[in-house]
Design brief:
By secondary structure, this protein is mainly alpha-helical. Helix content is about 75%, strand content about 5%. The chain has a two-stranded antiparallel sheet.
Length: about 300
Amino acid sequence: MKRKRRPMSFSRRQKLAGFLFTVPFLLGFIFLFAVPFYQAVVISFSELVLTPQTFELKPKGWENYGYALQVHPEFSKTFTEVLVKLATELPMIIGFSFFAATILNSDFRGRTFVRTLFFLPVILGAGVVLKMETQDYAQIMVTHLAEGAPFFGGAAVRSFFAAARFPAGMVDYVIDAIQALPTVIRASGVQILIFLAGLQSIPREVYEAASVEGATGWERFWLITFPMMSPLILVNVIYTVIDSFTAMNNELVVLIRETMLRGAGYGVSMAMAMIYFVAIGLILLAVFGLLSRRVFYHV
């Protein structure tokens, strides 16, 4: 007599589903990424010499890494500037995305059109427009417009907040936020969609029960909306970090490309890329370790 198979437990189904979701990444990593990554690691420890037919690799040990960190005049400085820029813009992007998603989740006429407008910068950020930015055409126009807008200039805003007796550090951050507003809007499209999907997945019955109990809108936000959106906040923070570090117009990415083509060569540029890769991994681990403890998962 055959034994009946026991139904799979809920925890095992979750593990199986998680594994199936990672299968496309594993296949892509093995067949598309693993070999080029191995070649990059080998080149970072070598000097690539071009020959008439092919190329040769001369082992150099850790010399390329030492050159990138201690000799190259721009790598460490640019790396620090990229980290500071991320630390400044990350709260702005997450805050703006959450705020925009909350507004777009409201019921008003023309909501679909407004959602399209918020996602449009993501589409325009690829291809021709982004290449124009890297060639400084768009940057020249933005600078010209900023010079022609006296109210939003740094001096006007600084004097306004100084009269209100705000701390100097807060004033500097607000001025940086105003100047970085076009970048923040352009970098927030995907995050807005993720937050919007999360807001729409929260059961309305929870809000209705809280309203019956007398909870205010402020209390409903901090006791219901924010905790249930915390997993997506973690996702958006990680996505924003990766998107910022790997963007085409990232200063360090441009520097690595320029070093490979017109600088110290392939070996040093690959060493820079490996240092950058390890740094990104450590930053992501730190971000995940800090934020995952405060994430609330609703089952």
